[in-house]
Amino acid sequence: MAWYPGAERMELQPESDGQPAIVPTQLILHSIAAPWTPQRIFEYWRDSTNLESHFGLGYDGAIAQYIGTQTRADANMYANRRPDGTGAVSVESASNLQHTDPWTDAQVETLIRLGVWMHQQHGIPLRVCRTWDDPGYGYHRLFPQWSDGGTACPGDARVRQFLEAVLPGIVARAGGGPLPTPRTPTPPPPAPEPAVARYQVTIGGLVYGYGAHGPHVREVGEALVAHGFGTHYRSGPDEDWRDPDTLNYADYQRSLGYSGADADGVPGESSLRGLLGHLPAPRVVSLAHVRAAARTDPGAEQGHRTYGDEVRIVEQALVDEGLLDPVWVDGSLGTRTIEAYAGFQRRLGYQGAQADGIPGQRSLTELGDRHGFTVTD
Ligand SMILES: [Zn+2]
């Protein structure tokens, strides 16, 4: 078991003690399609799915380690542990929901430091993996064997950063030349685990399937539970679509007589309409309405509401960013909400009077991209 001294240790059980040993020969980088902290990533793997990585990296560069680097983690399909006992160490990183955004400077710095440690601790050679089982550094979508038949993780911006900043940074700082790669013969690997469908579909303007996020995801989960298809939830349902949502939805599809790919747990329009009795519509927030609320509500009596439904959507997004206490999701764009919004603006790099807590086009659109609402004028 090796634990990176630069990471906060949040040991994930039973995986950490229960999974077989590996000789780590690769470091593979991921984006988790959610703007999560290392603590939130830990809770996700503890409560919701067993496709964990060794490390989780927040937007601010904070990193946690969940499993020792000489124990198998399950995010990289056939590279988790190969027949010769070698395997990949993996890092999930906070991203927007489509994982299209670049890593922040703080994330790049942490990835470089971790990469240097992996070289020094485990002798990972300072190069891009040339094949799926070749020792080195890589990113999840580099080889199809690293996922269940292909993945979009991470997005183009992060692939560019991997090649232009992260790996060159590791090479420059590790120096001293690569160490020999350890290889140890070991017994045959365990049988492959069943894969859960992880693609997304868009129905009525909203995204469903693994990684989807928003109140409509919670609505589906609650309807599944209400219809008796909640057996795979250990916690939730909530606003994040995870593997248990897919497994429960598949049970529901089979109850309708679907089979094969039609019962893979990713919704179709008719099964969704049957489950909910309607199709959820996208959430829309008007910039002008929210700005009007920001001018009116703080000066009015406590709890005054202007366009409360739209403000509530913005407030919930600020809660999901970790910037607002859930008790303030009240539809009133008061002082607390403005302070929280200013925090979001600073997170985007706004300074001084630009981070005044009054929503603008660019910041509100970014918040909507991250938390599943559309912004109109
Ligand atoms: Zn990935």
From TrEMBL:
Transmembrane segments: none annotated. Residues 179-193 have a biased composition (Pro residues). One of its GO terms (biological process) is peptidoglycan catabolic process. One of its GO terms (molecular function) is N-acetylmuramoyl-L-alanine amidase activity. Residues 25-155 form the N-acetylmuramoyl-L-alanine amidase domain. Residues 174-193 are annotated as: Disordered. This is N-acetylmuramoyl-L-alanine amidase domain-containing protein.
